[in-house]
């Protein structure tokens, strides 16, 4: 008796049009579900941190070392970056402005760019690179070596003990770092424009004063607070959810910087649009704030 | 009525694990585990690597949340407590981690004092005295107080971990592989410390270990877990529950293999032979 060789059901399913569609839907469904789960876990992590922040104040011995590390230790690198960015802006813009005889407007452009955009974004990027990655690596190592479990086993809540002080340090100190980046950038621009390129100092500064308002400075500072919060939460979350081993810690540190940087750019865009809308809502004719 | 109630309370175990199942994503670790630990008992959890001993211990302290089942400590369901309630309850626990889990950024003194500073209302002088007393109990000199964990040997770090776990006078102390990675002499020092701790303080202890010397020396009762992958569907994950004397006389082949440190059919499985071939080969090699 001859038998007809049968094809397995899953092969028919896989090669059919319906099978391919089902597989495509399943892949996208998994991706969407994974993204939602990750977003949910991150949101829950944030909510629990906020709840601990308002439940009990962190102890001073956890607050001050973090404030020192975020604020004082980051100051030199932020100042250096700010200075060079101010000078580079002057170098790149000068010849373009000179061709149309507007070199005295250089100060306005440099200072406006620094105060509204580059100051906060550069300070935040430096913080994400220097402090955020270190936070993720430190917390990741603590996770891998069971130090976070040990904290919990001794009745100290890890979110309260480890995350809240880091969050507060980033939140409160990034505006001061932004002011430092702004100041050093403005000084760098002045040094190169006025001292080196010999642009008239009176016009350089009078044009700057006309162009840059207190609102611009506030926009930069408001943005920086959001950047600081995002860096702290992303870095701590990566550290807390670090995979085992040296590779896991390295990946947590890299992910922390990359995700913080993407968050900084996204927030910069969103906050820029929102704050500009606020400005034009209160000053429809574009009048100067203050 | 009153006497019956008091009798019931006395008989109630300190730790009660009711039908606990734990999975991490698609990996099942524990399935329907039932266990009761009376106050004052030293229970040793045995089992091959990956069978879920440490996960079970972490479930008792609330570091791992079960997918199903309840864990009761002194009648309180651990998983129904909020973060703050759980933090306070954990003052009644001590946990000695496998690699001590000392905080790298702190000195030994700060590590041992950590639970006191976190919860206690003691002066700095009192804390210093208590830290030195606990360190001396585990045989460490005052001079280690200012050292960092990285400056100590593995055995010393384990003893610091024990001193830290004992500093709040816990009711339940858990040891996760306390002698792993130590030389035989230091292993015995740790065993003696576990026994001495129990003599000095009326504590209940759970010890996770692979070391049969430790198990025989410190245990009042032994429980052996089996990895789920090596069990038949519906079979209990606890394959042995008894005293050290009962362990020596058990007829369960899997328990005897573990106790005697015999690879048995595991070696044959690695070679890709069937269990029947494995048994034949094993018998052949014995004869």
Layout: helices, strands, pairs:
The complex is a heterodimer of chains A (290) and B (287).
Chain A (H helix, E strand, L loop, with lengths): L8 H7 L1 H39 L4 H13 L2 H25 L6 H39 L2 H7 L4 H39 L4 H11 L2 H27 L4 H38 L8
Helix pairs in contact in A: 1-2, 2-7, 3-7, 4-5, 4-7, 5-7, 5-8, 5-9, 5-10, 7-9, 9-10
Chain B lengths: L1 H10 L3 E10 L2 E11 L4 E5 L6 H8 L7 E6 L2 E2 L5 H7 L3 E4 L11 H12 L4 H14 L16 H13 L5 E5 L7 H17 L3 E5 L3 H7 L2 E5 L12 E5 L1 H5 L4 H8 L4 H7 L3 H12 L1
Parallel strand pairs in B: 3-8, 3-9, 6-7, 7-8
Antiparallel strand pairs in B: 1-2, 1-4, 4-5, 9-10
Helix pairs in contact in B: 4-5, 4-6, 5-6, 11-12
List keywords for this structure.
heterodimer; A: 290 residues; mainly alpha; B: 287 residues; alpha/beta; Rossmann fold; six-stranded mixed beta sheet; four-stranded antiparallel beta sheet; 12 helices; 20% strand; globular; disordered C terminus
């Amino acid at each position: 008796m001859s038998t007809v060789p049968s094809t397995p059901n899953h092969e028919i399913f896989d090669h059919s049009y319906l099978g391919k569609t089902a597989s495509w839907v399943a892949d996208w469904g998994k991706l969407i579900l994974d993204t939602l789960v990750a977003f949910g876990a991150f949101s829950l992590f944030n909510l629990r941190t906020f709840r601990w922040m308002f439940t009990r104040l962190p102890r001073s011995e956890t607050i001050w070392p973090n404030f020192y590390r975020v604020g004082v230790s980051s100051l030199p690198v932020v100042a250096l970056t700010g200075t060079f960015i101010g000078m580079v802006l002057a170098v790149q813009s000068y010849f373009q402005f000179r061709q149309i005889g507007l070199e005295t407007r250089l100060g306005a452009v440099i200072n406006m760019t620094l105060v509204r955009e580059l100051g906060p974004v550069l300070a935040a990027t430096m913080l994400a690179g220097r402090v955020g990655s270190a936070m993720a690596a430190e917390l990741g190592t603590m996770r891998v070596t069971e130090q976070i479990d040990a904290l919990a086993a001794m009745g100290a809540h890890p979110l309260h003990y480890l995350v809240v002080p880091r969050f507060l340090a980033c939140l409160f100190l990034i505006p001061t770092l932004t002011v430092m980046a702004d100041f050093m950038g403005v000084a760098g621009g002045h040094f190169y424009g006025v001292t080196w390129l010999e642009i008239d100092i009176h016009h350089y500064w009078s044009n700057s004063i006309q162009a840059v308002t207190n609102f611009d400075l506030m926009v930069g500072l408001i943005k920086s607070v959001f950047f600081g919060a995002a860096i702290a939460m992303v870095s701590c979350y990566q550290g807390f959810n670090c995979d085992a081993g040296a590779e896991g810690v390295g990946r947590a540190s890299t992910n922390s910087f990359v995700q913080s940087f993407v968050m900084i750019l996204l927030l910069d865009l969103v906050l820029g649009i929102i704050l500009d809308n606020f400005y034009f809502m209160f000053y429809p004719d574009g009048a100067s704030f203050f | 009525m009153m006497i019956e109630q008091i009798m019931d309370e006395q008989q109630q175990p300190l730790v009660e694990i009711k039908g606990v199942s734990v999975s991490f994503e698609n990996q099942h670790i524990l399935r329907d585990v039932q266990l009761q630990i009376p106050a004052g008992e030293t229970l040793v959890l045995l089992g091959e690597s990956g069978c879920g001993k440490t996960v079970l211990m972490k479930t008792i302290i609330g570091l791992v949340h079960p997918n199903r089942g309840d864990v009761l400590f002194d009648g309180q369901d651990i998983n129904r407590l909020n973060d703050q309630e759980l933090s306070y309850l954990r003052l009644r626990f001590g946990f000695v981690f496998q690699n001590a889990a000392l905080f790298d950024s702190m000195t030994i003194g700060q590590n041992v004092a950590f639970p006191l500073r976190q919860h206690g209302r003691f002066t700095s002088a009192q804390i210093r005295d208590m830290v030195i007393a606990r360190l001396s109990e585990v045989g460490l000199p005052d001079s280690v107080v200012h050292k960092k964990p990285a400056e100590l040997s593995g055995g010393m770090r384990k003893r610091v971990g024990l001193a830290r776990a004992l500093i709040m006078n816990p009711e339940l102390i858990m040891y996760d592989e306390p002698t792993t990675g130590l030389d035989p002499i230091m292993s015995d020092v740790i065993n003696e410390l576990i026994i001495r701790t129990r003599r000095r303080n009326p504590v209940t202890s759970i010890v996770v270990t692979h070391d049969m010397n430790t198990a025989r020396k410190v245990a009042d009762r032994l429980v052996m877990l089996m990895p789920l992958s090596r069990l038949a569907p519906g079979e209990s994950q606890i394959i042995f529950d008894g005293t050290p004397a009962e362990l020596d006389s058990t007829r369960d082949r899997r328990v005897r293999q573990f106790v005697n440190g015999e690879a048995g059919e595991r070696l044959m499985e690695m070679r890709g032979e069937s269990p029947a071939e494995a048994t034949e080969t094993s018998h052949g090699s014995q004869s």
